[in-house]
Amino acid sequence: MEMGFLQSLIRKKYLKRKRLLEAKIRVSRLVFFEGCNLAFDLEDLLRASAEVLGKGTFGTTYKAALEDANTVVVKRLKETTVARREFEQQMEAVGNIRHENVTALRAYYYSKEEKLMVYDYYDHGSVSAMLHTKRGEDRTPLDWETRLGIAIGAARGIAHIHKSNGGKLVHGNIKASNIFLNSQRYGCVSDLGLTTLMSPMAPPVMRTAGYRAPEVTDTRKASQASDVYGFGVLLLELLTGKSPTHATGGDEVVHLVRWVHSVVREEWTAEVFDVELLRYPNIEEEMVEMLQIGMACVARIPDQRPKMVDVVRMVEGVKRINTGRPSSEGSTTPTVTPPGLEIGSSSVS
Ligand SMILES: Nc1ncnc2c1ncn2[C@@H]1O[C@H](COP(=O)(O)OP(=O)(O)OP(=O)(O)O)[C@@H](O)[C@H]1O
After folding, report:
1. Which of 37, 80, 125, 295 has the greatest CB tally within 10 Å of its CB?
2. Structural fold of domain 127-347
3. Terminal Cα-to-Cα distance of the chain (whole angstroms)
């Protein structure tokens, strides 16, 4: 539904405080990051016609069409008690990351009442939408090349995040709705660093729960190892075409990681793969290799998961199988073969 951005900001509980909010919001300014060639101020943003893209863990996300014809995405964060200094520090850490596989944070806004983050808009939608929208209907399937590009790009983006800010940065919310396609059709990771600011105390919603590493469910503390787990679930999602948590027809909710384990243990490995992928010739070996990497990333014990920098080499190696390109200079790609995943058991008929 189209509506003025200001209109959406002040509806419901903000209605009463409309005048106060309008006055206060004009005092603070949008803070832009270097290299951002967008030129607008808060007034423009408030005047823009906005469409709600969705409500997520940390707030509501809008697509805002500015009067200068630029379209941006504005994330309006839920109420949080986080102090200005802490918020600004985290925004600086995130906003200064410039990498082709990480969505650039263009600007942010902080006031006591409002916290906004401004990103580029991706008009193809998220990987989640590409994989799951209109299944069973007439749709163009996400081909294997694109899925490989998503995996490689996302891995590179996460690895870059992990070495940023003195190696201390954690994404904290890896999932398909936070991955987009960049102009080279490689994965691009969005929405980083918010868990640090706003650890959600409420139980995670179902669509987030499937990506959560087991240790995060107890401690609520995301880490680089839990990002690796989330990436592993993303790989399994790309391979199976199934959501991280999905219904089987009855009331039962199935977790993708458990489902993949059980299928691989009890049936042919080939049964796990997305039927939409079966039309592409000669990709079986690559899919099995990718499955092995995914399974290694979702190891239950955090210390047993590979580091993201190694995962990058592994997923890049998968692409080389088909292209026949030599592996990178003396690459020491670790090989991982979880039990029951021998290539011989993967006959796709
Ligand atoms: N830059 C963007 N361009 C296009 N669509 C976006 C962009 N950022 C987010 N979206 C989409 O907007 C919707 C809402 O996003 P939001 O990040 O608020 O929630 P989420 O991804 O579902 O959950 P979470 O808050 O846990 O990340 C999602 O469908 C997401 O894919």
Report:
1. 295
2. Transferase(Phosphotransferase); domain 1 (1.10.510)
3. 46
